[in-house]
Amino acid sequence: MKTLLTFTLFLTIGHFANSQVRQLEADQAPGKAKVEELNWLAGFWTGTGLGGDCEEAWLPAADGHMIGTFRFWSEGKLVFSEFMNIVQDGESVSVKLKHFNPDLTGWEEKEKWTTFKLVELGPNAAWFNGLTYERKGNELIISLALTEKGERRIEVFKLTKKEL
């Protein structure tokens, strides 16, 4: 169950010296980008993170949205899933997501979601406030700032692109 406690997490994201994850300063405007510039995320990805197996799938951008799903397995059992949406937010983009238990009960309230605002977009890399996506060939590295029991850390997910 320690793993499950880890997931009730990351709304308190602090500053990290590690450049894997970047933070927006209080007075800093989000980075500029168009959703279509993140089409390099599109595809089906599998790998590890959080001490278990992960799958993430992204559809190509359409109408200012990029829809994705994520699921986490531990010891052959589904622990949780996410519905993700990269949305156009003025001249910037944000990742909005909701978490779900295996029975589809949500973690966030009905009208709420977890949001990561863009800090900077580079070639095949996107730094959001507390969340980084970086593609290196057929590998996708996701770095996520987490807080558990007052301790801050960075969880790294290493995924490989797969054909369906």
Highlighted features:
about 160 residues; single chain; DUF6265; 10-stranded antiparallel barrel; mainly beta; 10 strands; DUF6265 domain-containing protein; disordered N terminus
Q: How would you describe this protein?
A:
The structure is a single chain. The chain is mostly beta strands. 4% of the residues lie in helices and 53% in strands. A ten-stranded antiparallel beta barrel has the order 1-2-3-4-5-6-7-8-9-10. This is DUF6265 domain-containing protein. Residues 39-144 form the DUF6265 domain.
Q: At CATH's second level, what is the architecture?
A: Beta Barrel
Distance between the termini: 32 Å
Strand portion: over 45%
Structural class: mainly beta
Overall tally of structural domains: 1
In quaternary terms, these chains amount to single chain
> Could you please say which CATH topology applies here?
Lipocalin
- Tell me about the biggest sheet? 10 strands, antiparallel, barrel
Instruction: Compute the CA-based radius of gyration.
Output: 15 Å
Strand order of the largest sheet: 1-2-3-4-5-6-7-8-9-10
